[in-house]
């Protein structure tokens, strides 16, 4: 029965630590910008397409 009390104490302590960390980072503004990651994905795709296009041009020039 003593181990049960110990496990409850450990789990509540761990949950309290996670809650404090979440509150600290929420106050620092960690979760403010939720639009940029979605837009950043679109920019990465455009860069990859340009890189692939440049490689194809380079291969054509080498073949000539």
Spatial gap, N to C terminus: 81 Å
The helix/strand series, from N terminus to C terminus, equals HH
Radius of gyration: 25 Å
Return the domain count: 2
- What amount of the residues lies in strands? under 5%
The number of strands is 0
Unreliable parts: none
Mean pLDDT: 78
Shape: elongated
Please report the number of helical segments.
2
- Residue share in helix: over 70%
Structural class: mainly alpha
Largest sheet: none
Protein name: Cbb3-type cytochrome oxidase assembly protein CcoS
InterPro entries: Cyt_oxidase_maturation_cbb3 (IPR004714)
Keywords: Membrane, Transmembrane, Transmembrane helix
Transmembrane segments: 6-26
Write a compact overview of the structure shown.
By secondary structure, the protein is mainly α. It is built from two helices and no strands.
Task: Explain what the structure shows.
The mean pLDDT is 78. The chain has helices at 2-28, 36-63. It is mainly alpha-helical. The protein is elongated, with a radius of gyration of 25 Å. It folds into 2 domains: 1-32; 33-64. The N and C termini lie far apart (81 Å). It holds the Pfam family FixS. Keywords: Membrane, Transmembrane, Transmembrane helix. InterPro entries: Cyt_oxidase_maturation_cbb3. This is Cbb3-type cytochrome oxidase assembly protein CcoS.
Task: Describe this protein with a few key phrases.
64 residues; 86% helix; Cbb3-type cytochrome oxidase assembly protein CcoS; membrane; transmembrane; transmembrane helix; Cyt_oxidase_maturation_cbb3
């Amino acid at each position: 029965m003593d181990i049960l009390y110990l496990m409850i104490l450990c789990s509540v302590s761990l949950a309290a630590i996670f809650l404090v960390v979440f509150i600290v980072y929420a106050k620092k503004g960690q979760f403010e910008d939720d639009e940029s990651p979605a837009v950043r994905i679109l920019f990465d795709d455009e860069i990859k397409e340009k890189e692939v296009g440049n490689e194809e041009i380079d291969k054509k020039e080498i073949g000539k």
